[in-house]
Task: structure prediction
Amino acid sequence: MEQKKVVMDTDGIDRSLTRIAYEILERNKGTEELCLVGIRTGGVYLAERLKQKIRRLEGIDIPLGILDITLYRDDLRHSDKKPILAKTDIPFSLDDKKVVLVDDVLFTGRTIRAAMDALIDFGRPKLIQLAVLIDRGHRELPIRADFVGKNLPSSLWESVVVKLTEKNGIDEVVIQEDTQ
Amino acid sequence: MKLLLTGGRIIDPSQNVDAQMDLMIENGKIVKIGKGIHKPGNASWKSSAGEITVIDVRGMAIVPGLIDIHTHLREPGFEYRETIQTGSAAAATGGFTSIACMPNTKPVNDTRSVTEYIKKKAVSCNIVNVYPIAAISVGSEGTTMTEFRDLQDAGAVAFSDDGKPVTDSALMRSALEYASSFYMPIISHCEDLHLSAGGSMNEGFVSTELGLQGIPAIAEETMIARDIIIAEYTKTILHIAHVSTAGAVRLIRDAKERGVKVTAETAPHYFTLTDEALREFDTYAKVNPPLRTDRDVIALKEGLKDGTIDAIASDHAPHASTDKEVEFEYAASGMTGLETSLGLSMKLVHEGILTMKGLILTMSTNPAGILKLPKGNLKIGSDADVTVIDLDKTWLLDRNSMRSKGKNTPFHGWTFTGKAVMTIVGGDIKYRELP
Amino acid sequence: MKLARKDILGIKDLSIDEINLILNTADSFIEVSTREIKKVPTLRGKTIVNLFFEASTRTRTSFEIAGKRLSADTINISASTRSVVKGETLIDTARNLEAMNPDAIVIRHSAAGAPHMLARMVKQSIINAGDGAHEHPTQALLDMMTIKEKKGKIAGLKVAIVGDIAHSRVARSNIYGLIKMGAHVIVAGPAMMLPRDIEHMGVTVHDNLEKAIRDVDIIMMLRIQLERQQQKLFPSLREYSNYFCLNRQNITLAKDDVLVMHPGPINRGIEISPDIADGPYSVILDQVTNGVAVRMALLYLLIGGKQ
Result:
């Protein structure tokens, strides 16, 4: 029997993102040198939403980049499955920028490690911060998020799925037992 | 020593015979053919003439020993590819009692000494009859004629520069005229070297797709046309080697209708495979002339059926792996044939293209006639060269168990029906796999 | 979807899905070459041997750059320094290379089928960088990528390939690829340069440049090789260029937005006039840029994961 539980709905997600937008502005004292980089694919939509919220709050459009971390993954050599490579698009210099990396779920930390390696290849940011909608624990690397929508303790036999309107037609976060 | 084959189906085109009979051999000659020579129940018995070995070949065909008029035994000079010993063993395994070998050895068989060497070596091997074919030109270089009379006297049965065409038309004319004056055939390898230059397979759709330089059918046909015209004009005897194209069959058919004294052979691979066999760049299927197309295969079969093509010859061309395990265009041309020739040709019988009698005509009687050998029949008093064929035996070809040194066959793993199970040369059993 | 094959030997063997996967992946790799640090760690610790039996500066360089931008170690072995002159066979070379355990071998050879032979013998991935007049798959892929990039599609386009079709591996690979992707392909050249039964490959055949390029979307000019003159394939360069050189006059027969492509190196003034080669229709340098991306994509797709 598959156990499935909705842990966040549309309003919950929106409230979390609003709070995160405030926190980002507060921590960075405004939008100067601030930019967002969303990690494909879920992080991109969340970064886009954060950008809109910041514009509403500050009236300023901050730069948004898209990062595909496939080429930096540490599990390529160990996996039979070759992930489809998608485009990276960071149309601005990262030098001396305050970069907020955005992803949907923070889990082992390996994706974030790959993303930071990639960012460093693009330039020398002043600082890198991390914003995630869900932190489900089980870190395998010394990485923590600066901005967290919701801490969600989970077991390794569960999976956490963030569904977003842009790709899934619905906004919700679901925790379910892994079918495997 | 007497040998009695009992209950077999005797097929002898020379006597127009295809019937169940016994055949008696004594002192290397065929001495008796008829029904009921055998007294049933005796594996061997004493007759007035002494001990007789009786072999029951019921259900099998007894045919005049097969004759292959186009082989390459590679000795002297290329013993790493084949020797007279291994080639002869391969011949006996394939049902051949006589083979004629081409002169492209090293040195080329263009002198009495080389011809005599081959004869002597073959006699000491004592397996099958080996008939050397001597070169038309010194070194097969196409300039100076060899000493035809002396070579004939030494044992040569025909002249050919096989592997190379005689490009000089005047030399071809002289060779035809001189050889015909003492009834020797000229065997012509027909290829216009300008048209075939750089080619490694048939020119057509497959060569276009593979990006390999092609050898067009016209490279063969223009040369056949020239040779026929010369033979017609000089009223000489011409034999065309390894015919591979539909156009060539037509040229020969037309020439025969006009009364030109031309004969022709084709090889089993030309009526079995097409250039599609080269899709994976299989060097084992690289031959010269090249494998052609379906259209050519159909025309060759028609030519065999209507007698335009007189003989099936193997063009047995053994090569070492080093000759073949290289890039396709660098690979040597040729495949082994002595051990697959009968199996492949039997398919013509299964397809209804030839009768068994027709098959033996093209594999024994006609080949003997082309080279004027006193062979190719089961007449009383003839040399006891006899092949026993199990027409129903199904067998699988494994290149590694072939007798030939050359393992270069594209037919590895093929299944055949019909196999020579006993090869008798001059009354002696040289190959036997009968129970 | 992944590329479930060991080797890339020719476009003929590739499915439409595979071609799309390669082109889409290549498209994502374009960006890497525009970075300040043009290197990703994807193939760190992998070894790629470029085994070139035929001189080729641009293809070899393109493969080398592709490998290096993916952090692979690339080794070039060229015919001039190779043991082939000492009589070593391709088989020996292959077995020796195999024993050194590279991950991929890129091979260019003047003999058609040489990469296929290598692929049968060794366990490593083989990429055909051009075999005789047979195939040049990476060239066709970069050509298709360029067409897709500039025209947004391949299906429905009219593409003329002009020159020595008989001896061109670029022509063959492009014919296979473009037809698979739905284009209409026209080939043209002097009659002696049109190989037998070429129309059975599904192309329209012309022995006249003007007829071939009328209303086409793409013109691919092939390099004419001077040594073919000896093979009786054309009377002289002068005669060839008089009748088969793409120039300012005859290009007006093609569509207004025609793209001019050339696999290089160009014989300026012989198959293509300099003003056309450097003019607004020309995408010849885009082809070169895309060549690196296509080769990165292939290396990634073939050896990027677990072997």
